[in-house]
Amino acid sequence: MSARLFSLLFLVGTSCAQFVPGTDTGNGLQNGCSVTPADTLGPYYVPNSPVSRTMCLGTSDDDYMFVKGTVYDVNCHPVHGANVEVWQADKTGLYYDDRCRVQFTADQQGKYSFVTTVPGKYLLGYYYRPAHIHYRVTAPGYREIITQLYFSHDDSLGANDPCGSACNSGSAELIMDIRAPTADDLVQIAQLVTFPISKVVEFNPVMSH
Ligand SMILES: [Fe+2]
């Protein structure tokens, strides 16, 4: 298993800008069904990741989250059968070639969900990038979405992100709240893992033709 540390590859020294709190953005469709903003693919994308709806699982006392959403088109219709690839750093901020990356297919209602570890933050130069999950969403007849999901109340978002203008962590449409699970969430979580999860994030990618 090869772990690669971002900070060794990206010795980017940038100034630490003023604190920008995360924004509470609801379900990701606060601007209607406008196309999800893009973000950088990053150097750790690996094609043909395994098909699974759980990733980055370690021990049952790790900090996990249930991520769910619906893939929409710009008319707010679900994109059924969209392929969703996700990859992230593990809880310590490390990327791997062979774990913490999966893909799956949205259902007939465009819905998807998966369980993962809360991603760790990693140094980019002297400063931490905000925690994030990378997404690549593809569907026949639609433009692919390459973006990143961020979490509100992370003090590395926006102007504090050492990725600077190459990343889009200041985009409210990519910053989602972490909330407690509903009863329905708990049912869905129990279909994927046998341990309890207290954090849920919703992210609804919007694709255009
Ligand atoms: Fe990343």
Automatic annotation (TrEMBL):
InterPro entries in UniProt = Intradiol_dOase_C, Intradiol_dOase_core, Intradiol_RC_Dioxygenase
Keyword Oxidoreductase assigned: yes
Molecular function, one GO term:
oxidoreductase activity, acting on single donors with incorporation of molecular oxygen, incorporation of two atoms of oxygen
Q: Where does the secretion signal sit in this chain?
A: 1-17
Q: Pfam families given for it?
A: Dioxygenase_C
Cite the Intradiol ring-cleavage dioxygenases domain residue spans from the record: 42-177
Q: Which UniProt keywords apply?
A: Dioxygenase, Oxidoreductase, Signal
The entry's family comment says: Belongs to the intradiol ring-cleavage dioxygenase family.
PANTHER family (alphabetical): DIOXYGENASE, PUTATIVE (AFU_ORTHOLOGUE AFUA_2G02910)-RELATED, INTRADIOL RING-CLEAVAGE DIOXYGENASES DOMAIN-CONTAINING PROTEIN
Query: Could you tell me what this protein is called?
Result: Catechol 1,2-dioxygenase-like
Supply the source organism for this entry.
Branchiostoma floridae
